[in-house]
Design a protein that fits this description.
The protein is 4% helix and 46% strand. It is built from two helices and 23 strands. The strands form four sheets. The chain has a nine-stranded antiparallel sheet, with no helix packed on it. It is globular and about 50 Å long. It starts with 5 loop residues before the first strand and ends with a strand. The model has no long low-confidence stretch (mean pLDDT 97). It binds 6-O-phosphono-beta-D-tagatofuranose (TA6). 6-O-phosphono-beta-D-tagatofuranose binds next to strand 20 and strand 21. The site of 6-O-phosphono-beta-D-tagatofuranose has 11 residues, from strand 20 and strand 21.
Length: 294
């Protein structure tokens, strides 16, 4: 595939597309079509990657933007319609798209942007009854990053939950707050999924694992950068493992809870998706920033 700015390399066991455009750089694994770095030329990386990340075939890499599909989280926390799509309940969290090898099908390059398309065909699966084609479109510019995950169903209807599981960096989680969730209700995964209402901005002073319901444009305020996250979905997941869970997580240093958080553009719970035969659904997100020292 001809490209002026993209090079296919290898990181341990995984193929990695390295992007070096005059205005930005990025890295995307072909396994899971997982973006693991996005860095405008005169800026720090917008995406967090674990310093203990492992690049092994069939194993999800900790950080970046993992694609959780065709179910989010533990299968038994999903609506019955999504559960009915699996052949066994003994399946890994977050589905299988993130550990499959995707095809890099298209590269478009201009002096201001690079657009990439990845494809994953699911004809048969050991764990899932459905059939589909997944398409990930990534658009990178000097001042924005956008992802568009399109599910194309085939002859049978399918029910899915999904998320673009974005890991964001922060210089200090205790000086990080998230605006745009005010007055939304959320399910608290740490309190038996009880439904609660978010009064003020989201702050982090202990483990947070919540599914927020409601459309919103989110402002993720970290000490040196505010991320503006827009999406077309009606559910978002906010997560920080804090101290104790960090010790139990794979590929995760004990102190990493201080320098990351996730805000995941999702279709989960009552926002999960039913696709009729031969139909398509797009989950889209875009990130821009406000540099506080500008
Ligand atoms: O982001 C929410 C969540 O479901 C958390 O409960 C935690 O499990 C996280 O995803 C990471 O999951 P993973 O399977 O990548 O370790």
């Amino acid at each position: 595939m001809n490209s002026d700015f993209c090079t296919l390399t290898v990181r341990d066991e995984l193929e990695l597309l390295e992007i070096n455009h005059p205005l930005f750089s990025a890295s995307i694994l072909k396994q899971g079509a997982q973006l693991i770095s996005y860095k405008p030329k005169h800026d720090s990386d917008w995406i967090w990657l674990s310093k203990l990340a492992e690049f092994k075939q069939g194993k999800s890499v900790r950080g970046g933007i993992p694609i959780c599909w065709p179910w989010f989280g533990n299968i038994d926390d999903n609506p019955q319609s999504v559960q009915s799509m699996v052949k066994t309940m003994n399946v890994p969290a977050h589905g299988f798209a993130r550990t499959r090898l995707w095809e890099l099908s298209k590269i478009t390059e201009t002096d201001t942007l690079i657009a990439l398309e990845f494809l994953l065909d699911i004809e048969t699966s050991d764990s899932w009854y459905g059939q589909a084609q997944l398409e990930l479109k990534v658009k990178m510019r000097a001042d924005s990053l956008s992802l568009n995950l399109v599910t194309h169903s085939k002859a049978k209807p399918i029910f899915i939950s999904q998320a673009l599981h974005t890991y964001f960096p922060t210089q200090d989680i205790q000086q990080t707050s998230l605006a745009g969730f005010e007055n939304l209700y959320y399910y608290d995964a740490l309190d038996n999924w009880h439904q609660k209402t978010q009064e003020d901005e989201v702050i982090f002073s202990s483990e947070v694992d919540r599914v927020y319901l409601g459309e919103s444009k989110q402002r993720l305020k970290t000490p040196n950068k505010t991320f503006i996250l827009k999406s077309n979905s009606k559910s978002s997941v906010v997560w920080n493992p804090w101290i104790e869970k960090s010790k139990r997580l794979s590929q995760f240093a004990d102190d990493s809870w201080q320098s990351m958080f996730c805000v995941e553009t999702a279709n989960v719970m009552e926002d999960c998706i039913e696709l009729a035969p031969y139909s398509s659904h797009a989950l889209t997100m875009s990130i821009t920033t406000e540099n506080l020292n500008e």
